[in-house]
Amino acid sequence: MTMMKRFGLALLVLAVGGVTGCERHSTKEVYYLVSTNLSLPYWQTAAAGFNRAAAQYKVTARVVGPENYDPQAELAEFQKAVAAKPSGILVSVADASVIQPEIDAAISAGIPVITMDSDAAGSHRLYFIGTNNLEAGRMGGRRLVERLSGKGNVVFFTLAGQPNIEERLKGFKDILETRPDIHIVDVIDTKSDARVAFDEAQKQLAETGPKKIDAFVCLESASGKPVSDAINRANVKDRVLIAWDASPDTLAGIKAGTIDSTIAQKPFTMGYYGLKALDEVFHAPPAQLNKDYGSDPFSPYPVFVDTGTSLVDKDNVDLYIAAAAQAK
């Protein structure tokens, strides 16, 4: 074979390979991201990552779910997504007891399901993408101990029943077990309602003497600003507020000094990586989708992809504000 013929054959192989690569994806491939609280900046960021990956792959992305915290509404949207027979579903589990049977049903129907942000570990989902919430809670716990100098009363604002938030609370408790002079006075279920968080914070701020609350910890993003507003309204300067996630309001509060710090997750990365992970399963499906891959030593999938967390305070908040501005 002459050099020219070899060169021509190489070009043909490259051309065919290029066409094949392009043909791998299609807008007929539809991937769903299902969650609750879609009105929150956190979920808007996650959706941006999901949509960015879809645009790169030239597939169709659909982000669905209720604007507020409503596990039953999330279930309804998940069921609609399954009925549409999509290429894959990425879901954040608001209440595992509500949605786990439907995850298993989707897997049995041949639809790949991966969880993100909040897991349903007992389901047949392929794996989980998100934060190591137990360690993130411990990170926050160490910050709390530092800022209280090992002594004080604490109130937590939480969302009862959501697996990831329960793990965060456990992480804090793990650290506080070794600090007998730090007392958890109350754990308040806000149901992700800013008004509840504000009203409850006002009640706690009215306590004085030995019952005085020295620190407030918000374990989900909806509570940070209303608790900060309540502290500002009371005009007190000696309370510690640790928030969760890096919403614009939270970053502004750290910059202004009304919020001590926040635990920042990576929702954009969760959404971005999640769609690409589903795409890989769709195009290279396992021989058996309905299988316990978590206990399979030869599994093609991990059990957990940790997208990372970091503590944001006055020393590094400008970096996060600049990154958010650049991402717009």
Would you give an account of this structure?
The protein is α/β, with parallel strands linked by helices and 328 residues long. The protein has 2 domains: 26-131 and 267-308, 3-Layer(aba) Sandwich (Rossmann fold), CATH 3.40.50.2300; 133-264, Rossmann fold (3-Layer(aba) Sandwich). It has 11 helices and 12 strands. A 6-stranded parallel β-sheet has the order 2-1-3-4-5-11, sandwiched between helices. α2 (41-57) runs parallel beside α10, α7 packs parallel to α8 (224-234) and α9 runs antiparallel to α11. The longest helix is centred in the N-terminal third of the chain and has 21 residues, at 3-23. The N and C termini lie far apart (54 Å). The model is unreliable at 1-22 (pLDDT under 50).
> Helices and strands: which structural class?
alpha/beta
The CATH topology of the largest domain is given as Rossmann fold
Radius of gyration: 23 Å
Strand order of the largest sheet: 2-1-3-4-5-11
Overall, the morphology is elongated
What does the main sheet amount to?
6 strands, parallel
The percentage helix is 40-55%
Q: Could you list the spans in which at least 5 consecutive residues all have pLDDT below 50?
A: 1-22
- Mean pLDDT score: 92
Number of strands: 12
Beta-strand percent range: 15-25%
**Architecture of the largest domain in CATH?**
3-Layer(aba) Sandwich
Number of helices: 11
The secondary-structure element order is HEHEHEHEEHEHEHEHEHEHEEH
Which CATH first-tier class of the largest domain would you pick? Alpha Beta
Termini separation: 54 Å
- Overall structural domain count: 2
> What is the fourth-level CATH superfamily of the largest domain?
Response regulator
